[in-house]
Description:
The complex is a heterodimer. Chain A has helices spanning 37-47, 108-116, 136-141, 143-146, 159-163, 170-180, 188-195, 209-213, 220-233, and strands at residues 3-12, 22-32, 67-70, 73-76, 88-92, 99-101, 104-105. Chain A is of the alpha+beta class. In chain A, the strands form 2 sheets. A 5-stranded mixed beta sheet of chain A has the order 2-1-5-3-4, with helices on one face. A two-stranded antiparallel sheet of chain A has the order 6-7. In chain B, the strands form 7 sheets. Chain B has a 6-stranded mixed beta sheet, with helices on one face. In chain B, strands 1-10-9-8 form a 4-stranded mixed beta sheet, with helices on one face. In chain B, strands 13-16-15-14 form a 4-stranded antiparallel beta sheet, covered by helices on one side. In chain B, helix 5 crosses helix 16. Chains A and B meet through helix 1 of A and helix 3, helix 4 and helix 11 of B.
Amino acid sequence: xxxxxxxxxxxxxxxxxxxxxxxxxxxxxxxxxxxxxxxxxxxxxxxxxxxxxxxxxxxxxxxxxxxxxxxxxxxxxxxxxxxxxxxxxxxxxxxxxxxxxxxxxxxxxxxxxxxxxxxxxxxxxxxxxxxxxxxxxxxxxxxxxxxxxxxxxxxxxxxxxxxxxxxxxxxxxxxxxxxxxxxxxxxxxxxxxxxxxxxxxxxxxxxxxxxxxxxxxxxxxxxxxxxxxxxxxxxxxx
Amino acid sequence: xxxxxxxxxxxxxxxxxxxxxxxxxxxxxxxxxxxxxxxxxxxxxxxxxxxxxxxxxxxxxxxxxxxxxxxxxxxxxxxxxxxxxxxxxxxxxxxxxxxxxxxxxxxxxxxxxxxxxxxxxxxxxxxxxxxxxxxxxxxxxxxxxxxxxxxxxxxxxxxxxxxxxxxxxxxxxxxxxxxxxxxxxxxxxxxxxxxxxxxxxxxxxxxxxxxxxxxxxxxxxxxxxxxxxxxxxxxxxxxxxxxxxxxxxxxxxxxxxxxxxxxxxxxxxxxxxxxxxxxxxxxxxxxxxxxxxxxxxxxxxxxxxxxxxxxxxxxxxxxxxxxxxxxxxxxxxxxxxxxxxxxxxxxxxxxxxxxxxxxxxxxxxxxxxxxxxxxxxxxxxxxxxxxxxxxxxxxxxxxxxxxxxxxxxxxxxxxxxxxxxxxxxxxxxxxxxxxxxxxxxxxxxxxxxxxxxxxxxxxxxxxxxxxxxxxxxxxxxxxxxxxxxxxxxxxxxxxxxxxxxxxxxxxxxxxxxxxxxxxxxxxxxxxxxxxxxxxxxxxxxxxxxxxxxxxxxxxxxxxxxxxxxxxxxxxxxxxxxxxxxxxxxxxxxxxxxxxxxxxxxxxx
Lengths: 238, 604
């Protein structure tokens, strides 16, 4: 495996001591090209500077802890390989949320938006004894949006969200889409009502940043478009 | 220090914790405390499926599921508990569907199921389709579905709070102490019942499928508070981790027809498990890979093999073995089918290996995956503190950190997600009952002070030892000495070396002295849990002079039912030594006094 030396520039901020965020540069040598940016950040934290602060958990792109801005793009540090971003790697916290420390931002507003679209199964009919039936086609209809891991990479890449923090944001719309287009769910009317707001889907200006940012390769703009269409025509296109 | 009061306090927000919260919160004031945002929990990494004999595609019975589990456990599982889990499986999977979980579907619209290792038709002994799944992100969908239900039911969440101590008064659990990660403030939670659902501790090995967060926090706290750990010597190495990284490649790949191939191009599981081949239980497959490597048949003579799901390979073996669809037609797959059934696997291999699994085979090696052992509990999650199964009032555990024991010496694939929801549910129900039947017990004097002192010691210690260095040494030691194959010499050496590491750990110093989001402090504390659990694991393993399930000894190659059909209980003593004791495996007797599940040699 090829080894490389990398220079890592990290935007740091510790509210206990810093007035302003500032850049700090680290040198990390003999890094496998195929290792993750997360591995490099851990090497810095574990062997150079214990004060460097970030979130991480699963380390293979399914838990959503380590969204950050890497070389200007919203990425998961564990799904970004060194060979694709070397030799100089710049790392910043995701934008539009308050920085708690270094690469850790306050995710509470993000999860509040998620909760605002009532992200749970709504169906007042008593369930059958066995499973509800659903055709393979109906299941396929919302498959893409079930992949969302709530990492926040999309919402924090969105110019509309940066301009107005009230905007519910792409992640919450993706989560709403997952239910609106699930043939078993009966909460469509109330979810569409929530999203039919100038801070709902209509704040989306189709900048497509979210699609580029999504580590799960969800076609987010398409999902938002489908929700807009459902609002415009008053019907769900299953 | 802040004080809170909730009748039911649940530590950990994975599948077990959230399922328990859902049930406890129906009738009592419930709080979930988690060091991660709930959707970050490692349940979300589970891929292939959840086992239940729904019989949606072919004949199946929960009794077959129970037998397969007893056998998979190498007769180390407690049989009444296994039967409970497999019987409840059907209702609980239907319940998840009723919560909106997006399972894949059969052509008739029912929940889709696929084969998985060790799950068989008990008549033909061929693989049976029992793993209910949502693509290859079943755990992700379970985690999200349960979290959604908890939000809907207004469960109280304390996200990014690290529980660091258990509060006990007069032998009963009465609360926990938690560290608020964002602020560094300590919080005392007064409770009538406490549930630990803190997950596993595979991070003591170098190659692991486990999250960085999997540091055995609940087990470590419990051990230091005098609660024994059961059967820690049984730790599962999953056969198919991505080479060098350990990232899990689901057994569902083999469930869909994938095969393991050695350097000679041979599908070697033919030799190790003539009936079910690549779908033997995980301990058997991991040992087979290891033996192939030892025989020089690893790829390029190295320590890994190929996992091949390319349609041409799969169809070749389907044809050779006459594998058929439920309707009797010959089974064949194509690239589209693989992409649809295993999209995340394709994503992982593309990201980390630059490999498309329908074009190229995947390089794999065994990866430390799952703790069969843990905090001893009964079927209602109640913690059992001795050989007589004495219940500790108010204390519960569920999920990977617990040991019911439904998995014995080796867990079957899909039974971990099942364990979470079945035992999470029964624990939640029993916590609510306990809360309603019992008054508040007072907190111990100076509640939280010990935890405060302990964290302050780590934060301000001027020691020269370094956590990352010690952790690397521990991981290398465990990988070398307490791995797929073990010997007395290796295990005894591990115990001595771990004690040295524990001594050095006392002199750890950290750089971050701040209060705000001090993850260096927490990682230092977490590593202490790994060390304590490694000691208990190695000590338990060194004592067990037999091979059973995941505990394979070169020097004692056979299972020894006469001496060793018993569970290990390991106590961490205040002086740092380990006390071992044993309790019998719970067997079920037929009316005529014979065993319902006679212990026979395991053959797949």
